[in-house]
């Protein structure tokens, strides 16, 4: 069909959009001329010529007529002289090999695709694993399906030759002679060129020095700036705990605490760690700092004058408002 298919039976054109078509395939023995390209362990084939020789089973099926040939198969095909029986061992084994490959092909093609809902078809076949269906267009077959089926079968046949045990090797100097396991000599010598792909890197010394110099300079600037920051903090290194961050970024409401103390790592005194902090209305005071003689802590007096703002403060210095429901008032 051409264009986008209708999604449901209620849409116009449903009865005319899907027209059944039947194709038939015959199994032929074929002479191929194939160019094999084995690169990086991947086999790529290019069929340059194909010649159909004969049908694998050269008989014609007669539909609707029962056979009376003494076998359990009731299929009628003529002429009987073209039947291949197991007593003809060589031809029978050859026919069985063709039949096995054909069975693999039918294993992919058999099945159904329920397209009653074109947006979500129900697939009950292995053909969706091949390139015969257009998966981007609701799993419908490509218009050139008649040519794609033989191509798919050829790929199945040629894939057997990717196994070295199935490859028939001949001498390049004399293609009519099979190499087999016989060692070669001077008469079988053939000029050949062996190639392979490999990655090689060429480094430009000037570019490397420029890049590394910039990286070293930035690292040195980081080390110097970090050292200056530590010296500015009187050589005290602080961690990244919450209490340490509050101490480093504290507001005026916390100035009454004695932040100076602890050990050399910048930890806070224990009495400071036990103080409770709350969020609410904080009065910004303007008291003077008083140095306590017994502890050595710098303490500021909290005044009642100043701006009123919201923020964190100590217990008793923060007035926290509680919301009440309207129906309780």
Report on this model:
By secondary structure, this protein is of the alpha+beta class. Helix content is 24%, strand content 19%. The protein contains six helices and 13 strands. A three-stranded antiparallel sheet has the order 12-9-13, with no helix packed on it. Strands 1-2 form a two-stranded antiparallel ribbon. A two-stranded antiparallel sheet has the order 3-4. It is elongated. The model is unreliable at 286-306 and 324-329 (pLDDT under 50).
Topology:
Elements: H1 14-17, E1 28-39, E2 42-55, E3 60-61, E4 77-78, H2 89-109, E5 111-114, E6 122-125, E7 133-134, E8 140-141, H3 145-159, H4 205-232, H5 242-248, H6 270-273, E9 277-283, E10 289-291, E11 298-300, E12 308-314, E13 318-319
Antiparallel strand pairs: 1-2, 3-4, 5-6, 7-8, 9-12, 9-13, 10-11
Short description:
The chain has 329 residues and is of the alpha+beta class. It has helices at residues 14-17, 89-109, 145-159, 205-232, 242-248, 270-273, and strands at 28-39, 42-55, 60-61, 77-78, 111-114, 122-125, 133-134, 140-141, 277-283, 289-291, 298-300, 308-314, 318-319. It is built from 6 helices and 13 strands.
Mean pLDDT: 77
Largest sheet, spatial ordering of strands? 12-9-13
Helix-strand makeup class: alpha+beta
**Gross geometry:** elongated
Question: Given the structure, what is the number of helices?
Answer: 6
Reported for the largest beta sheet, the result is: 3 strands, antiparallel
Tell me the helix content.
Answer: 10-25%
Strand share of the residues? Answer: 15-25%
Radius of gyration, in angstroms, nearest whole number: 44 Å
DSSP summary, beta strand count: 13
Distance separating the two termini: 75 Å
Encode the helix/strand succession as letters. HEEEEHEEEEHHHHEEEEE
Low-confidence stretches: 286-306, 324-329
């Amino acid at each position: 069909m051409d264009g986008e298919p209708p999604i449901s039976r209620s849409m116009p054109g449903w009865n005319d959009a899907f027209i059944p078509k039947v194709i038939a395939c015959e199994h032929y023995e074929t002479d191929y001329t194939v160019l094999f390209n084995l690169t990086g362990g991947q086999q790529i084939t290019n069929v340059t010529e194909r010649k159909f020789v004969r049908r694998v089973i050269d008989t014609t099926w007669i539909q609707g007529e029962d056979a009376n040939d003494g076998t359990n198969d009731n299929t009628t095909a003529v002429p009987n002289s073209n039947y291949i029986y197991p007593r003809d061992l060589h031809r029978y084994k050859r026919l069985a090999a063709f039949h096995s490959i054909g069975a693999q092909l039918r294993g992919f093609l058999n099945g159904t695709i329920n397209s009653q809902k074109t947006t979500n078809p129900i697939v009950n076949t292995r053909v969706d694993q091949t390139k015969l269906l257009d998966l981007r267009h609701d799993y419908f077959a490509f218009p050139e399906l008649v040519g794609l089926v033989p191509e798919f079968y050829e790929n199945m046949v040629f894939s057997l030759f990717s196994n070295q045990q199935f490859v028939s090797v001949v001498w390049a100097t004399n293609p009519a002679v099979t190499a087999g396991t016989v060692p070669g000599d001077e008469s079988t010598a053939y000029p050949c060129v062996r190639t392979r792909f490999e990655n090689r890197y060429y480094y430009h010394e000037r570019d490397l020095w420029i890049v590394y110099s910039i990286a070293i300079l930035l690292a040195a600037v980081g080390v110097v700036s970090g050292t200056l920051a530590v010296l500015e903090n009187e050589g005290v290194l602080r961690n990244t705990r919450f209490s340490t961050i509050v101490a480093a970024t504290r507001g005026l409401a916390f100035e009454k605490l004695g932040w100076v103390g602890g050990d050399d790592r910048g930890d806070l005194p224990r009495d400071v760690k036990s103080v409770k902090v709350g969020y609410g209305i904080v009065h910004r005071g303007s008291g003077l700092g008083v140095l306590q003689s017994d502890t050595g802590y710098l303490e500021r007096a909290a005044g009642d004058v100043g701006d009123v703002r919201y923020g964190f403060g100590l217990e008793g210095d923060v007035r926290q408002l509680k919301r009440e429901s309207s129906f309780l008032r």
